[in-house]
Amino acid sequence: WCVHPAALRGSLSRSARSHAKEILHCLKEKFFRELQDLEVDGQKVEMPQALSWYPEELAWHTNLSRKILRKSPQLERFHQFLVSETECGNISRQEAVSMIPPLLLNVSPHHKILDMCAAPGSKTAQLIEMLHADMNVPFPKGFVIANDVDNKRCYLLVHQAKRLNSPCIMVVNHDASSIPNLQIDVDGRKEVLFYDRILCDVPCSGDGTMRKNIDVWKKWTTQNSLQLHGLQLRIATRGVEQLAEGGRMVYSTCSLNPIENEAVIASLLEKSQGALELADVSSELPGLKRMPGITKWKVMLKDGQWFEEWKDVPSGRQTQIRPTMFPVKDEEKLKAMNLERCLRILPHHQNTGGFFVAVLIKKSPMPWNKRQPKVHQKLPQRTGDTEVTATNSDSGSECITEEPALSENEESKKMQESQNSDTEQSKKEGVCGPPPSKKMKLFGFKEDPFVFLPEDDPLFLSIQKFYALDPSFPKMNLLTRTQEGKKRQLYMVSKELRNVLLNNSEKMKVINTGIKVWSRNSDGEQFGCAFRLAQEGIYTLYPFIHARIVSVCIEDVKILLTQENPFLSKFSSETQKKVKDMAMGSIVLKYDPDPEKPDDLQCPIVLCGWQGKTSLRAFVPKNERLHYLRMMGVDVFKAKRKEEDSESKTEEEVQHTLPQTEEGMDVEEKEHDVVTKMEAEIDEESSHSPVESTAMEVENKIEDVDQSSKNANGHVSQESKITDTSNVKD
C-alpha cells in the first residue's frame, strides 16, 4: 500500500501535499508506535517498512496476513485505518512492483496521457496524482484517458478514479490494439491527438505472480505466452503509433517470460527502423533491485519441444510459433537495440512479485505512418450551444499527421465521413453521446450523453450570483448527463478534455468523465439557488468562490463531523457571528491551521455545509468524515470483538455517531460496498488475464439500482452494474 501526495479527496487543493504529510505523521506516530512491541501468538509483529526506491517515503509495505490482523485490537485498528483511507482516496493498496511503470513515465502536469489497458486502475490513480503535482494549478493542462477492453471492468476503473476527484480523467471502452485516433481542435482546425506519455501494461500470463497466485501453478503452460505474444505486440504497436515524437511509452507485464517481454520489444524496435529507442533508466529509482533484459532465449511448445530459430520450426507448428518470438540473430542489430536496458524485477530480490518494464522513446514517426502534409478543414466556431459555421480554409494551413497510410480513395472517403460526423455534431452542439449502437459492445451498457451547458444558460446565472464566482471560472466546462428535463447534477471537466469530448463523440465510447461540483436541492430555489455544493468537487470550486465562505475553528469542525444537525448555539461565538446575517442555503466551511498550535491539525480543510434557520450541518461522506476526525486525533474506531454480534453492534455505533448526510449516499454506499467486495475477490485472482474475458463469461452479482435514483446518486450511473470479478490486473 502507498500514500500519495495528491491522492487525497482534495487532490486539486493546494494543501494535498500537507494532507499526505499528515497521514504519514499519523501512521508513524500512532499506528507504527502501537505495533512496535506488539506480539501475536508469541511472535513479534513485523513492522511496516518504507520502499527505499519510492520518492519521499510515500510508499510502504507490510507482510501482515488477514488472519493475524483479526487477532489483535491494535492490528484491527490499523487495518480499518487502511481500508477507510483507501476508500477516501488517501491511500492506495497495490502490489509494490506495479507502482514502477507510472514512476518511469516521468509525468508532468501538462502531459497528455493514455493508459491503454487500465483496469482496475491502481496505475491510473498514480498517473492522476502526478498530473496534480503542482498544487498551485487547479486545472492542469494535461489529462489521462484510461481505456479498457472489458466494459464491466471499466466501472471498476471508474470507481478507482472517482476516489481522486480529478476533472482531468476520462474512462473509455475500446480494444487497445485498435483504439481509434482522436482529434482535437487546434486554432480552428482538426489535428490528430498524439500522447506525450503512454502506459502499455498489457494482458499477460502472470507467471511473475506465482508467489501470491496459486492458480499460476495449476494452469501455467508455455502455450499462454505463445497465445498472448501477438496481442501484446499489436497493443504495443498501436501505442507507439499514437505516441508523440519525443514522448515516452512504458511497456510492462507481470511475467518473466521473454516471449512476452524482450521478444515484443525487439520486434517493435526492429520494425520501427530507428524511430524508437530503449531509454536508459539505470539511474532512476535508486534503491530498486533489478536485472538487465536478456538477449538470448529459446521458444518451447506445450509438448516440450524447444526451438532456437524460426527456420527450425516445422510448417505444422508455424501457426503457434511466429518469427517475432525469436531473438535477433544479427549481432550488430542486437547490440543497437540495447535490450539490456529493460528491467527485470525478480521476486526474491526484494520480496515482491516478478515484473518486466521497458521504457521506449519515440524519436521520429513510425516508418509506415510517414506521409505528405495535407490541408486541414477549418472547424465550425463553437460558442456554448450555438454554432457559427466557418467556411473551409483556403489558406492551405498544413499539419503532418501520423496515421496508417491510406490510398487516395480511402483517404477521400475518410474525409467525407469526417465531414458527415461534423454535420451531425453541429445539429446537437454541446451534446456528446455514445457511438451508434452498432459500434457498441453487444453486452455493454448504454451510457447517458455528456451535455455541456451553453454560455447563456439561465441555470448558471443564479449559481454565479449566489456563490459570487470569479469571472475566470471556466463555465464552458460544466456538463450534465441529462439531455432533457431538469438537470439534477452538474459536473466539470478540464478545457482539454472538453476539446476531446466535443470532437470525438462519434468514434469514442466514453464511460465516465468529470467530477460532480453541484447537486440540485429540492428546497434550494426558495433560498436563491437551486444547487448546493458537492463535497467531491469542492477543492476544484473553492478557488473560484468569493461568497458564502465561513472560517471555523478546529472545535467547530469536530462538532460538524460528529453531529448530524447541530444547533448554532453549539458553535464558537466567532462562527455564530459570521453566519448570523447570512442567508440560508449551501455554504463553504473552511479550516485554516494555526502555526502557533503545532499540536492541532496542520493542514487546511474545506467542507460543504448547509445553513438552516437554527442549525449548521456538513454534507460530507462517512469515510471522509472518519479521515478528518482521525487527522484531528479523534479515535473513530472501537476494537472489534471476536463474536459476530459484537461486530455488528460496533458497526451500528459508528453509523450512529457519524450520520449519513450526503444526498443519495445510502444507494452510493451500497454500490461502493459491492465494489469493495469485488476488489477483495480480485485481490485473490490472477494479476493479468491469460485471455481477455468476455461479457458472456460474467455472472451478474449486483442488482441494478432503481432507475429513479440514477441521476440523483452520482455521476457513474452504471457503477452499480459492475459484474466482472475475474482476471483483473494488479
From TrEMBL:
<feature type="compositionally biased region" description="Basic and acidic residues">
    <location>
        <begin position="641"/>
        <end position="655"/>
    </location>
</feature>
<keyword id="KW-0820">tRNA-binding</keyword>
<dbReference type="GO" id="GO:0016428">
    <property type="term" value="F:tRNA (cytidine-5-)-methyltransferase activity"/>
</dbReference>
<dbReference type="InterPro" id="IPR023267">
    <property type="entry name" value="RCMT"/>
</dbReference>
<dbReference type="GO" id="GO:0000049">
    <property type="term" value="F:tRNA binding"/>
</dbReference>
<dbReference type="GO" id="GO:0030488">
    <property type="term" value="P:tRNA methylation"/>
</dbReference>
<dbReference type="GO" id="GO:0005737">
    <property type="term" value="C:cytoplasm"/>
</dbReference>
<feature type="domain" description="SAM-dependent MTase RsmB/NOP-type">
    <location>
        <begin position="1"/>
        <end position="363"/>
    </location>
</feature>
<feature type="binding site">
    <location>
        <position position="175"/>
    </location>
    <ligand>
        <name>S-adenosyl-L-methionine</name>
    </ligand>
</feature>
<keyword id="KW-0539">Nucleus</keyword>
<keyword id="KW-0694">RNA-binding</keyword>
<feature type="compositionally biased region" description="Polar residues">
    <location>
        <begin position="386"/>
        <end position="398"/>
    </location>
</feature>
<feature type="binding site">
    <location>
        <position position="148"/>
    </location>
    <ligand>
        <name>S-adenosyl-L-methionine</name>
    </ligand>
</feature>
<keyword id="KW-0489">Methyltransferase</keyword>
<feature type="compositionally biased region" description="Polar residues">
    <location>
        <begin position="708"/>
        <end position="730"/>
    </location>
</feature>
<dbReference type="InterPro" id="IPR057286">
    <property type="entry name" value="PUA_NSUN2"/>
</dbReference>
<dbReference type="InterPro" id="IPR057285">
    <property type="entry name" value="Pre-PUA_NSUN2"/>
</dbReference>
<feature type="active site" description="Nucleophile">
    <location>
        <position position="254"/>
    </location>
</feature>
<dbReference type="Pfam" id="PF01189">
    <property type="entry name" value="Methyltr_RsmB-F"/>
</dbReference>
<dbReference type="InterPro" id="IPR049560">
    <property type="entry name" value="MeTrfase_RsmB-F_NOP2_cat"/>
</dbReference>
<feature type="region of interest" description="Disordered">
    <location>
        <begin position="368"/>
        <end position="435"/>
    </location>
</feature>
<keyword id="KW-0819">tRNA processing</keyword>
<dbReference type="GO" id="GO:0005576">
    <property type="term" value="C:extracellular region"/>
</dbReference>
<dbReference type="Pfam" id="PF25378">
    <property type="entry name" value="PUA_NSUN2"/>
</dbReference>
<dbReference type="InterPro" id="IPR001678">
    <property type="entry name" value="MeTrfase_RsmB-F_NOP2_dom"/>
</dbReference>
<keyword id="KW-0808">Transferase</keyword>
<feature type="region of interest" description="Disordered">
    <location>
        <begin position="641"/>
        <end position="730"/>
    </location>
</feature>
<dbReference type="InterPro" id="IPR029063">
    <property type="entry name" value="SAM-dependent_MTases_sf"/>
</dbReference>
<protein>
    <recommendedName>
        <fullName>tRNA (cytosine(34)-C(5))-methyltransferase</fullName>
        <ecNumber>2.1.1.203</ecNumber>
    </recommendedName>
</protein>
<dbReference type="GO" id="GO:0005634">
    <property type="term" value="C:nucleus"/>
</dbReference>
<feature type="compositionally biased region" description="Basic and acidic residues">
    <location>
        <begin position="667"/>
        <end position="680"/>
    </location>
</feature>
<feature type="binding site">
    <location>
        <begin position="117"/>
        <end position="123"/>
    </location>
    <ligand>
        <name>S-adenosyl-L-methionine</name>
    </ligand>
</feature>
<dbReference type="Pfam" id="PF25376">
    <property type="entry name" value="Pre-PUA_NSUN2"/>
</dbReference>
<keyword id="KW-0949">S-adenosyl-L-methionine</keyword>
<dbReference type="InterPro" id="IPR023270">
    <property type="entry name" value="RCMT_NCL1"/>
</dbReference>
<feature type="binding site">
    <location>
        <position position="201"/>
    </location>
    <ligand>
        <name>S-adenosyl-L-methionine</name>
    </ligand>
</feature>
<comment type="similarity">
    <text>Belongs to the class I-like SAM-binding methyltransferase superfamily. RsmB/NOP family.</text>
</comment>
